[in-house]
Specification:
Layout (H helix, E strand, L loop, with lengths): L1 H26 L7 H13 L11 H35 L10 H11 L2 H6 L10 H6 L4 H25 L4 H43 L1
Length: about 220
């Protein structure tokens, strides 16, 4: 796994933004690329001017944009596979993208409970984020709900981690070893905040329904 992650890291280093797009796309169709490490590393490379910029735009912002677009494209591709492939795809190919058939019931219950918010929450869960689009397609979630939630979650993820890499860019060699833990900590905090927000929103919605009926 470590050797595989190094390959993806080298792909970004040697091919720049096209390499970053490919790696982030693959990370959203079930390939274990370690997106939580790739984004801050790319941000650090941009800070060291090892990745080109456009005009006066900070390099980490361009890195974030490329990462976000790649994630949305990859996630949408896997969504389409789930939408059109259905259960036969899970039966035959699910294990190759880290999605086992026995997990389908739990995932469907999660999506049923949180609806389109489940897509947003999944963008901040390591390992899960790379395959979360498949059950969204299987559950026939409307594309007009799936894409905005995926884009918002991916933007927060990519911009946050790319900026982290930009700040630490001058110490890339020193931070690479511990970057994974730092990224996971940030992701966990974001998940807690978003879950809390969803719970509050749903609680207010349920409280409002009886009032509407009574009115």
């Amino acid at each position: 796994m470590e050797h595989l992650s190094q390959i993806f890291h080298d792909l970004v280093v040697h091919f720049g933004y096209p390499g970053l797009f490919i790696v982030m796309f693959l990370g959203n169709i079930g390939t274990p690329v370690g997106t939580e490490v790739v984004m801050p590393t790319a941000g650090a490379l941009a800070a060291q001017r090892l990745l080109p910029t456009i005009g006066t735009m900070p390099g980490w912002i361009l890195v974030s944009i490329v990462g976000t677009v790649a994630e949305v494209c990859g996630a949408t591709a896997l969504y389409e596979v789930g939408y059109h492939g259905g259960l036969p795809f899970v039966h035959r190919w699910g294990k190759y993208v880290g999605f086992k058939e026995k997990e389908l019931g739990h995932v469907q219950a999660f999506y049923k409970r949180f609806g389109h918010w489940a897509v947003l929450l999944a963008r901040f869960v390591p390992f899960v984020r790379g395959v979360a689009s498949l059950p969204a397609g299987l559950s026939r979630m409307p594309l007009v709900e799936f894409i905005p939630m995926t884009a918002i979650g991916s933007a927060i993820f990519c911009f946050g981690l790319a900026y982290l890499g930009d700040v630490a860019g001058k110490n890339l060699d020193a931070i690479t070893a511990s970057l994974h833990k730092a990224a996971l900590a940030i992701v966990i905090v974001l998940v807690v905040l978003i879950v809390a927000a969803v719970v509050v929103i749903r609680a207010r919605s349920k409280k409002k329904e009886p009032d509407d009926i009574a009115a």
